Amino acid sequence: MTVQRIGTPPVLPNGAKVPLVPATRVGDLIFCSGALGVDENFKLVEGGVGAQTRQAIANLQSVLATTGATLADVAKTTVWLTDLANFAEFNAAYAEAFGEYLPARSTVASALAIPGALVEIEAIAELPEAGNAA
User: Fold this and answer.
1) Helix %, strand %, coil % for the chain, to 5?
2) Burial call 88-124: b when 16+ CB within 10 Å, e when fewer
3) Between 87-98 and 48-65, two packed helices, what is the crossing angle to 10 degrees?
4) pTM to 2 decimals?
5) Which residues are 102's β-sheet partners?
6) Mind listing the pLDDT tens digit for each residue in 84-128?
């Protein structure tokens, strides 16, 4: 199968290019890189883990939209939190965003590469037309 790169590598405020693409497509699957709670200038949003979670999910939605997919097409997420004390606030923002389309999920506590980042979310989705082919 062919691997299709989706998007271009993000650029940090200091001009450095991050060596990854926002997503790749293999067959009918979309593999989204870990999304952080950063704005279009790669600046972390303020307001704690809830705000960063909402922004990270909005960033995932933007990547998915480029392929015609939505959060309803997400089958699995992996989440990293820097502090499990933030789990309840994260969980509320996450549940609000996914609504009735909750995917399978793993959540772990870990340090993140971006100082001040509280959450990172990666996702695997299926293209919507693929699910209708059956």
Assistant:
1) 30, 30, 40
2) ebbbebbeebbeeeeeeeebeeeeeeeeebbbbbbbb
3) 30
4) 0.93
5) none
6) 999 999 999 999 999 999 999 999 999 999 999 999 999 999 998
